[in-house]
Write a structure and sequence with these properties.
Helices cover 63% and strands 10% of the residues. It has 382 residues and is of the alpha/beta class. A hairpin with a 2-residue loop joins β1 and β2. It starts with 6 loop residues before the first strand and ends with a strand. 35% of the residues are buried.
Length: 382
């Protein structure tokens, strides 16, 4: 992802071994590690990731606002407080009511999904919008309280959500705010569903047939199911992210940005230089490849090294056959020795990542990769 170098494929043993040429972090014209070029790539990656995140959040936020506007436009046509019209509603009215209900709950879901997990600013913005919408809706309902007493429960629920949203805004982190936001929405939907089911059953009994209130019960229940499943909510963001990812001009750069997170390029470089290690392949035991569980003791087979002094960054799947991987790696080693007359030094995750401090090393992977002369991939079934 950093070098963009061409890859030449060959087969060694039972696994395919791919070798990529040297990347920009290997050496500059003066023969030293080109940290400026790596810092540039990291910065570009963070910018690409920010653009991708903005597209995902912006799309969900815009869709939420759009469905909210459509709801306000359509509900004037179908929402009524005339009991006779409830009983006499025709098929067209039922269809319009269903569409209005879908727009109403879609607005809530889409706006609430807009903030990504660590976006505190947009989370507060969404909560402010929710508060404003619920207060406006409560004000509209108050106009009809003298005529229809059944509006009291809905108004009380809206006020409850306003208070809960205001409390959520006081939380320190985006994760805490979103946790309380979804809990508040879930409680509001649960109580609202009970309210609409009660009045739907009451109107059904009075009219002798289902009324348009039934659609509020159905859509509210459906929305509650989605809210109650975090994996479904995250799935919407993931699917939208994949859609935009396919059209990102520099998707690999965005991947680098996702690895390093919010750390500055300078900080990542400094940390990467301090934590970079490599192993002498001739000294590695078979156990370094054999297991598929982290083993902190394997760190002793690596030594601290300067960026640009490692011969290969070895990429492999922990779930491939260890015997085939070992055979392929040894075959590559023999080829390297015959060409260069010395044993290769490699970066291997099993031996070069501190398994007791994985997060710090994972953020530095782009730097570790750039500190190696080539990329060696043990390409197996998984």
């Amino acid at each position: 992802a950093l070098s963009g170098a061409p890859v030449a494929n060959g087969v060694s043993g039972a696994s395919s071994v791919s070798n990529a040429g040297s990347g920009p972090g290997r050496k500059d014209s003066a023969g030293t590690y080109a940290s400026a070029e790596v810092a540039k790539r990291i910065t570009e990656g963070q910018r690409a990731l920010r653009r991708l995140r903005l597209r995902v959040s912006g799309t969900l936020f815009a869709l939420g606002l759009s469905t909210g506007v459509l709801f306000e436009v359509l509900r004037a046509e179908v929402l009524t407080h005339d009991f006779e019209r409830y009983c006499q509603a025709v098929t067209t009215t039922h269809v319009l009511q269903l569409v209005v209900c879908i727009f109403f709950f879609s607005r809530i879901l889409l706006l609430s999904l807009a903030p990504l997990a660590d976006d505190a600013c947009l989370t507060r913005c969404v909560l402010v919008v929710d508060i404003a919408v619920m207060l406006a809706d409560a004000a509209v309902r108050v106009r009809f309280l003298d005529d229809v007493g059944e509006e009291w429960p809905s108004t009380a629920l809206n006020i409850m959500l306003v208070v809960a949203a205001a409390c959520a805004m006081l939380r320190g982190s985006a994760a805490r705010m979103q946790e309380h936001m979804w809990l508040a929405i879930g409680a509001w939907l649960g109580l609202g569903t009970l309210n609409t089911v009660f009045y739907s059953a009451l109107e059904w009994q009075r009219c002798g047939r289902p009324t348009t209130t039934l659609w509020w019960s159905v859509t509210s229940l459906g929305c509650l199911v989605v809210v109650a499943r975090p994996s479904w909510r995250q799935g919407v963001q993931v699917m939208l992210g994949r859609l935009f990812w396919a059209h990102v001009r520099n998707a690999s750069a965005a991947g680098i940005g996702a690895l390093v997170g919010n750390c500055s390029a300078r900080e990542i470089l400094q940390t990467g230089k301090a934590r970079f290690r490599c192993s002498r392949l001739a000294d590695l035991p078979y156990e370094a490849i054999q297991g598929n569980e982290p083993d902190p003791d394997l760190l002793r087979f690596s030594q601290a090294a300067r960026l640009g002094t490692c011969d290969a960054f070895v990429s492999h799947s922990w779930h491939d056959d260890p015997g085939e991987k070992w055979s392929a790696l040894q075959s590559w080693r023999q080829e390297f020795v015959s060409r260069h007359g010395r044993e290769p030094k490699i970066w291997l995750d099993k031996t070069c990542i501190d398994q007791d401090n994985i997060l710090s090393d994972l953020r530095c992977l782009p730097v570790f990769l750039s500190g190696c002369s080539r990329l060696v991939v043990l390409f197996g079934p998984t």
